[in-house]
Specification:
Elements lengths: L3 E9 L6 H17 L4 E3 L17 H16 L7 E10 L2 E10 L2 E7 L24 E5 L2 H7 L3 E5 L2 E3 L4 E4 L3 H4 L4 H7 L4 E6 L8 H15 L2 E9 L7 E2 L3 E4 L2 E5 L8 E9 H10 L1 H9 L5 E3 L25 H20 L3 E5 L4 H22 L3 H11 L9 H8 E7 L5 H14 L2 E6 L1 H15 L12 H29 L6 E3 L5 H6 L20 H14 L5 H6 L17 H5 L3 H12 L5 H11 L5 H17 L35 H31 L2
Parallel strand pairs: 1-2, 1-11, 2-3, 8-16, 9-10, 10-11, 17-18, 17-20, 18-19
Antiparallel strand pairs: 1-15, 3-4, 4-5, 6-7, 8-9, 11-12, 11-13, 13-14
Helix pairs in contact: 1-2, 2-3, 9-10, 9-17, 10-12, 10-13, 10-17, 14-15, 21-22, 21-23, 22-23
Organism: Eutreptiella gymnastica
EC number: 6.3.5.1
Pathway: Cofactor biosynthesis; NAD(+) biosynthesis; NAD(+) from deamido-NAD(+) (L-Gln route): step 1/1
């Protein structure tokens, strides 16, 4: 006989420290779950405060506001008839834990602390929370007075255990715990837990989603059972975009899957599971039964509630569905564009300002804003009242609903081509055509007057006039003359961003967009405080190789055909300079290709290679090059990386997409003043190259000897 349960998970677009908004979205998700006849709902990690509060978690105010929000949940009828797993920061015995708070019928059932903290890459959880290292144990937690008065409870179980309902057993593992070798779901499954919930705060990274899904699929394939995954979705106030994809799996099959990228604030994912299918699946797996019989018991907390208690006519178990993945170009299109919308609507600003050069980087940024407009208009047409209200707030146009993406782009994006005597008509033409295809505002301005005025001011002080290198100037003069062009563009960008809405008869100011990619940041191939200095940068975590592929994709799929011309054009800064002809490309100027830069970046960060380790790795990868050439390339990379590392300290906040990002704020923590000659390391590189060359000579001689012996 079937024993059907309706279970629900969700994507929530929470915002760090927005307790009012976060609470409203939590309640909405619970009400949507109840409307879908679900009796169990799981939400994202730390959903009450928002995951990205960081050092605010060290403030008692944050913990108090969390309990105040829980009090609001307990006071109303939102948890009547449903078991809710809610993410919250909780202090127990003067220790702060990242917890799951189970609430049912206006009573707290259990508080479950996180056992494994995320402490690498972008994550620093041990700075704010302590891992629960007492294993599967429970102890008493005495509730705050305000909570006691509402739910008439004095204490509740605190620790890691399971909730024994009248018809099944439910438990939790949280985010990072899923990724550990000895994940809690193993012991929980062997201990008879049939439904496992995972409230997560997992950010987007290109090509990462499959790892997450495969872990959940493996967990439910080996152990059986149902697994609900909830996640935040959106920008909660920082560089990360939490990429949703709430899902429900059972016995290795995907039953329901939410979106990875969205402009919606709340998305519910629901499935119907037959508990008898879980029991049958497990019982037939005899090796599992042997291990389960010998497994130590998981402590349980009784809860007088049934997940299968709601009778719904015609209810059937959910059928397995195919797992959906975006290809990387779609990830680039929809992740940063959704992040841009969150940032804009929550910043209170009027729109975006972009210095559009007609090159690959700024064109990618413009295309992302255009895609943002497409997704926002689509949500408006689907009737999303939250999105419509946000559009009206951003544009300062009450009662207005855009009918096309071009209409919205005209309201929120200003692009300006900042020309100089070194600019070409082709780049201007591409910039103008792209703005036309997007539908945004477009202007052209000359910066020569600004740079001339600065040079004249300088000359009046020192009595000398600096010259470009092509006009006989020294290296110092040449670099200064190039850099003042780039920095003048930044000054003009901020000036125009504050005044363009006013000039158009409106109000508010614009956020300035940056367009430096991750490879140029790694190499330091940009001018400090030029147009890379901006408010936000949607492509700052994306490599040049992927950006080029994205431009091809957007040209074919998003209605911006001029991007084909952009990607086919060789990238050039158009700053002039000694020895830099009109046709000289950025790669020639850098002395290395973007493909090489991507490889260096991955080896430096992901493979954790220093100069010597990098040479040895590349000797196997780049078999078409001699060890001597490889050694020189590696030394050149580390030299330029080290002398430019100081630029990372002022890097514009950028969307995090690549796991070899050199972003200095928290992801890639290294010094910014280096001994750029790397004397010891480069000496060891030379020694390694010599050994590799000698080994290659021996192999070559051996081959020749073999060939002569067997003609």
């Amino acid at each position: 006989m079937s024993k059907l349960v309706r279970i629900a998970t969700c994507n929530l677009n929470q915002w760090a420290m927005d307790f009012d908004g976060n609470l409203a979205r939590i309640k909405e998700s619970i009400n949507l779950a109840k409307a879908a006849d679900a009796t169990f709902r799981v939400g994202p990690e730390l959903e009450i405060s928002g995951y990205g509060c960081e050092d605010h978690f060290l403030e008692q105010d944050t913990l108090n506001h969390t309990w105040e929000s829980i009090a609001e949940i307990l006071r109303c009828d939102v948890t009547d008839g449903i078991l809710c797993d809610i993410g919250a920061a909780v202090m127990h015995r003067n220790v702060c834990y990242n917890c799951r708070v189970y609430i049912c019928n206006r009573r707290i059932v259990m508080i479950r602390p996180k056992m494994c903290m995320a402490d690498d890459g972008n994550y620093r959880e041990p700075r704010w929370f302590t891992a629960w290292d007492k294993g599967f144990t429970l102890e008493d937690f005495y509730l705050p007075r305000r909570i006691r008065e509402i739910c008439k409870q004095v204490k509740v179980p605190f620790g890691v255990g399971a909730i024994a309902l009248n018809d099944t057993v439910v438990a939790t593992e949280t985010c990072e715990e899923l990724f550990t070798p000895d994940a809690p779901h193993i012991a929980l499954g062997l201990g008879g837990v049939e439904i496992i919930a995972n409230g997560s705060g997992s950010h987007h990274q290109l090509r990462k989603l499959n790892t997450r899904i495969e872990l959940i699929k493996s967990a439910t394939t080996k152990s059986g059972g149902a697994y609900l995954y909830a996640n935040q979705q959106g920008c909660d106030g920082g560089r990360l975009y939490y990429d949703g994809c709430a899902m429900i799996m059972c016995n290795g099959n995907m039953l329901a899957q939410g979106t990875q990228f969205s402009v919606h604030d709340v998305e519910l994912v629901v499935a119907t599971v037959d508990l008898e299918d879980i029991r049958s699946y497990r019982a037939a797996f005899k090796s599992r039964s042997v291990q389960a019989a010998a497994a130590p018991p998981v402590p349980r907390v009784d809860c007088d509630f049934e997940l299968s208690g709601i009778a719904v006519n015609g209810l059937q178990p959910s059928k397995p569905i195919s797992i959906r993945y975006h290809d990387p170009m779609e990830e680039i299109a929809y992740g940063p564009s959704a992040w841009l919308w969150d940032y804009l609507r929550r910043s209170g600003q009027r729109g975006y300002f972009l210095p559009l050069s007609g090159g690959a980087d700024s064109s990618s940024t413009a295309a992302l804003v255009g895609i943002m407009c497409q997704e926002v208009v689509k949500a408006c047409q689907e009737g999303s009242q939250t999105t419509i209200a946000d559009v009206q707030k951003v544009t300062r146009r009450p009662d207005w609903i855009p009918s096309t993406a071009q209409e919205l782009a005209k309201e929120v994006l200003w692009c300006v081509y900042m020309a100089s005597t070194h600019s070409g008509s082709e780049t201007e033409g591409r910039a103008r055509q792209l703005a036309l295809e997007i539908g945004c505002n477009f202007n052209k301005i000359y910066i020569d007057g600004i740079t001339t005025a600065i040079v004249d001011s300088f000359s009046s002080v020192v009595g000398k006039v600096p010259q470009m290198g092509n006009d006989g100037g020294s290296t110092a003069e040449d670099l200064a003359m190039q850099n003042i062009q780039a920095r003048s563009r930044m000054v003009m960008a901020y000036f125009m961003s504050q005044l363009m809405p006013w000039a158009a008869g409106g109000s508010g100011s614009l956020l300035v967009l940056g367009s430096a990619n991750v490879d140029e940041a790694l190499r330091g191939y940009y001018t400090k405080y030029d147009c890379s200095a901006a408010d936000v940068n949607p492509i700052g975590g994306i490599c040049k190789v992927d950006l080029k592929a994205f431009l091809w994709w957007a040209a074919a799929n998003k209605g911006y055909p001029v991007l084909e011309r952009v990607v086919q054009a060789p990238p050039t800064a158009e700053l002039g300079g000694a020895g830099r002809g009109a046709e000289q490309t950025d790669e020639e100027d850098m002395g290395m290709s973007y493909d090489d830069l991507s490889m260096f970046g991955k080896l430096r960060k992901i493979s954790r290679c220093g100069p010597v380790g990098m040479v040895h790795k590349l000797a196997h990868e780049w078999t078409h090059l001699s060890p001597t050439v490889i050694g020189e390339k590696v030394k050149k990379f580390f030299f330029y990386y080290s002398i430019n590392r100081h630029k990372m300290t002022t890097l514009t906040p950028a969307y995090h997409a690549e796991n070899y990002s050199p972003e200095d704020n928290r992801f890639d923590l290294r010094q910014f003043l280096y001994p750029a000659r790397w004397s010891w390391q480069f000496r060891k590189v030379d020694e390694a190259v010599k050994r590799l060359e000698e080994a290659e000579e021996l192999r070559s001689a051996k081959r020749q000897k073999t060939e002569h012996a067997h003609p």
